[in-house]
Amino acid sequence: MCADYQTSILMLRRALNRVQDNWKSYRHRFVPWVVLNLSKNEKTLRQVTDRSKDKLVPDQEVSESLLQLFSVLLRSHRADHGELRGAQSHLLRKETTKQHQCEEEAMLRSLGFCIARKPSTLPFAGTGVFVTKGCVSKGATVAMYPGTVYQAYEPILLQSIRNPFVFRCIDGVLIDGNGKGISKVVFKSCSGRDRMGPFLMSDTSWLTSSPQNPLAVGQYVNNCSNEYPANVYYQEFDVPDKFPIKLRQYLPNVNYSTDSQRPLRCVVLVSLRDITAGEELFSNYYTIVR
Description:
By secondary structure, the protein is an alpha/beta fold.
């Protein structure tokens, strides 16, 4: 009886340790935890006086950066107006070292830097995003936050359960950046629904280990701390109607509902300062000051 009791206590302690480890990793992306700890960690807060004043970089600059990268990617993949890419299924696409190098070279050539996912230097934070080559200039578009876009009135309860990758925009729009489980199924379904003949309107490759759009890793950028100050910040970007149809195949976002009359919402991460190779990206949250 004594041995069984000791075994039960040991198993309980191990279970509690696993829960604590999971929470330490989860909390860095859990909005309520961040809000409750702002008073202790003011460096994680970026204040704006109004929604219209949140953009520190004009949308035009963000759009130009994306168009530049996507155009180079399109040429690198040897696609003619998106027809070849549109005719291929991302599910059947075989990831190779050559393809990865092609996308890395396209990013370095068009933007002047490369980023990649690696184990974070932040304790218990899991995966992080690092600048691996080149140098990021202040105000540059460094990454994109992929996922399904939900308007404030659309259902996301099931998708949000145990999901640390739901990003909330200033106006209540939510982006589910989880690449697994029901979130993955929903994104792929919506992406297939929106396809226009041979043209894909979104990119599902961010759900794999080798995204064709190398910027689509923003969901892995960890929040800053007092020890690791922010070097990037979130900025909302609505894709303009004039965005070329042949380049939309690289957008890592899709609307949950076809009834939405609003432009496709994307969230990009923009650099607060120059960032050199080897540095990890750390972001901050914002709040509206009345």
